[in-house]
């Protein structure tokens, strides 16, 4: 799993926060698609598109690249899947519909294959779980979880009620965190106050403001992700690689 960007909405040099998960050295699932995400994706995988993207929420630093994804896919034979909470479908359809990007007798969703998801969904046979997080209006932002492998918070305040109760299979936890918290995002003090040591030990902060913030994370002994940094996702219990694609005859 590689971070294409780790920044908050204003952190241009760190890139919009987004990850790409690979299986068998090929892109498997993109999480969020901000304004610069596809440029960074294509630096890593030239002339390629993500086969699927999971959207955590509809702020533009997380969906701003979907218009570009539409155009790149429209003029190729690719039809990327867009997984999104069923509660956000109307927001996303309004946003992309109102840009009038599909012309003639076509729909945006002829090209972007939207798949509404509830508490869990299957991506190429692998089950992923979706938990609501705390970011603005209730039920407007969601995390992504593969038990035993990883948890990706999306933008959120601390969510001990989710992490302490559901994310306890020793998986690595990627968590929104800036230096100072605010009503929408987690800060360093919040982490220490809200989470048990066995959560902090496996937590990696992302969605921060400047490269210098890394010094503060390091001082507090909180791990943090950097742009283009790759993390191996092994099952915490068996040390097996994350995904083994079925061999096709
Ligand atoms: Zn954000
Ligand atoms: Zn946000």
Describe the structure.
The protein is an alpha/beta fold. The protein has one domain: Ribonuclease Z/Hydroxyacylglutathione hydrolase-like (Metallo-beta-lactamase, Chain A, 4-Layer Sandwich). The chain is built from 9 helices and 13 strands. It has helices at 37-44, 60-63, 66-74, 89-98, 108-111, 160-166, 188-194, 197-200, 213-219; strands at residues 2-5, 18-23, 26-31, 52-55, 81-85, 113-117, 120-123, 126-132, 142-146, 150-152, 172-176, 203-206, 223-224. Strand 12 (203-206), helix 9 (213-219) and strand 13 (223-224) form a beta-alpha-beta unit. It starts with a strand and ends in a 25-residue tail after the last strand. 41% of the residues are buried. The structure holds zinc ion (ZN) (2 copies).
